[in-house]
Specification:
Layout: H1 30-42, E1 49-57, E2 63-68, H2 71-75, E3 82-89, E4 95-100, E5 113-117, H3 120-124, H4 132-136, E6 140-152, E7 157-161, E8 167-171
Antiparallel strand pairs: 1-2, 1-3, 3-6, 4-5, 4-6, 7-8
The structure holds zinc ion.
Length: 172
């Protein structure tokens, strides 16, 4: 039996490391897995929303694209107006994305959505072997999202995340 370090370990010293369950696909010990499940159920993905900035493209009937946590990142994608958007899980939604689970692997982006694109394949190619192996490791899920405009953005501003997976708008 070999020692596999639990991904929920906090450091690399002997004292900070602990062992993952043998053969566990998620590389976690039972206690860290329970903490992940508890965090997911405290803020269920299907009940929550996420704030992100996006480019509103007039030539595409105002369709939103290029979702990022700061207006500076969106501005790099084009000169169109930038809006603050609220996203939610929607099985029929036009955007595909990667939901980052509460697995310790995701660190400060736990519970957030990222890699938001208009097609499933565009999310898949963000991973060397597609999203399948990542799902198996418990790192996240492919989800469809819909987005609504909250207000025009005041450039520059950004979203600040807290450790509980919450978010707030920060100016400048
Ligand atoms: Zn652990």
């Amino acid at each position: 039996m070999s020692y596999v370090r639990c991904d929920g370990s906090h450091g690399y010293s002997f004292n900070e490391s602990h062992q993952a369950e043998e053969g566990a696909a998620d590389n976690l010990c039972a206690r860290c897995r329970a903490a992940m499940v508890e965090a997911e159920s405290a803020r269920p993905m299907v009940e929550r929303t996420w704030l992100l900035y996006a480019r509103q493209r007039a030539e595409a009937e105002g369709r939103l694209s290029d979702f990022f946590p700061s207006t500076i990142q969106v501005r790099m994608c084009g000169d169109e107006p930038i809006v603050l958007a609220r996203l939610r899980v929607d099985p029929e939604g036009p955007h595909w994305s990667w939901y980052q689970s509460h697995h310790p692997y995701n660190r400060r982006s736990r519970g957030h959505v990222t890699m938001i694109y208009p097609a499933k394949v565009l999310v898949d190619v963000c991973f060397p072997y597609g999203t399948g192996p990542e799902v198996k490791r418990g790192h996240g899920q492919l989800v469809r999202l819909s987005a609504e405009v909250v207000r025009p953005a005041v450039h520059p501003e950004g979203i600040r995340y807290d450790d509980s997976g919450g978010e707030a708008v920060e100016k400048g």
